[in-house]
UniProtKB/TrEMBL annotation:
Domain Periplasmic binding protein intervals: 25-281
Highest taxon, organism lineage: Bacteria
Location(s) in or outside the cell: Cell envelope
Protein name: Periplasmic binding protein domain-containing protein
Protein family per UniProt: Belongs to the bacterial solute-binding protein 2 family.
Organism name: Paenibacillus albilobatus
Length: 307
């Protein structure tokens, strides 16, 4: 998926440094902050010139940033697409300029897959499945368990995948029902607001809260406590990311389980950029391997947690 013909002598052969333009999606979560840090540190470590900008949750702004990188004739563009759709035009422009594009942590849904070179990140659908498998293993028996789902940014790859994977597995078990799904932007504040609404609508009927990321789960935990219930006991709370704050919440018994989503993608991204510049073929998808953490394992793992 690279275009080696365009690069008979590589920049590295000529002693020039590689320029990578990185269009980050925002600063919405602990996960995102760790991801940004990882990209910046890895570029420095790899001796790659990084042009970094942040779209702060605006797809329009992310497109503008990518267009600027194209104008600046960077060697490679990487970005974390806010949503799955709406990228055809700008990706076509990058392709015509001969600039390869790497998708970082979120995939796109475009009709022509040659518009992007590689994806580095998690299998979001599998994360949703793993959350549901854990739940199905824990909550068995005759009781019907009612779930509230706190979704991430509408049409973003993690929100789409985590919902699809979770519901696919939940449907296979007769004892679960999704009471309501709410949509936020992966922030603590959104998680709190969505949970307040869910509690107003369903109150004590809620058995399980499935949050598409830790920050929303932590916001929901706050809302549940303010409502006078005990998160982790009166309701099972599960989330995705497994960042340090989630580990702390598991240690204090307020979060029951977190499926890992690894934000430390910087080193893999820099390796992919170098490989591309060396004319090497990249695999279309580079998927990170990740764990599942519970209250039983959280205490031990907390000290090793890097993000
Ligand atoms: O794309 C990865 C997701 O985006 C993370 O799970 C979430 O925390 C972040 O904001």
């Amino acid at each position: 998926r690279s275009d080696p013909e365009k690069r008979e002598t590589t920049k590295q052969d000529e002693g020039k440094s590689i320029v990578l333009g990185f269009a980050q999606v925002g600063t919405e979560s602990s996960w995102r902050l760790a991801n940004t840090k990882s990209v910046i540190a890895a570029a420095k470590e790899a001796g790659i010139d990084l042009l970094y900008d942040n779209a702060e949750q605006s797809q329009e702004r992310q497109i503008e940033i990518i267009r600027r990188f194209i104008k600046q004739k960077v060697d490679v563009i990487a970005f974390s697409p806010k949503t799955e759709t709406g990228w055809e035009e700008v990706l076509q422009e990058a392709k015509e300029a001969g600039i390869p594009v790497i998708l970082s942590d979120r995939e796109v849904n475009v009709s022509d897959d040659t518009l992007w070179t590689a994806y580095i990140g998690s299998d979001m659908m599998d994360e949703g499945r793993r959350a549901a498998h854990w739940l199905a293993g824990e909550l068995t028996g005759q009781k019907r368990y009612r779930i509230v789902e706190l979704e991430g940014t509408e049409k973003s790859a993690p929100a789409v995948g985590r919902k699809k994977g979770f519901e696919e597995v939940i449907r296979q078990h007769g004892n679960f029902e999704i009471l309501g799904s709410y949509s936020g932007d992966y922030t603590y504040e959104d998680g709190k607001k969505m949970m307040e609404t869910a509690l107003r609508q369903h109150g004590k009927l809620i058995d399980v809260v499935y949050a598409h990321n830790d920050d929303m789960a932590l916001g929901a935990i706050q809302a549940i406590e303010e409502y006078g219930l005990h998160p982790g006991k009166d309701m099972v709370i599960i989330s995705i990311d497994a960042t340090r704050p989630a580990f702390q919440a598991m240690v204090t018994g307020k979060l029951n389980m977190a499926v890992e989503c690894n934000p430390l993608l910087g080193p893999q991204l820099m390796k992919a950029v170098r490989d591309l510049m060396d004319g090497k073929e990249l695999p279309m998808k580079i998927i990170t391997s990740e764990g599942v953490f519970t209250q039983e394992t959280a205490k031990r793992e907390l000290q090793n947690r890097e993000f």
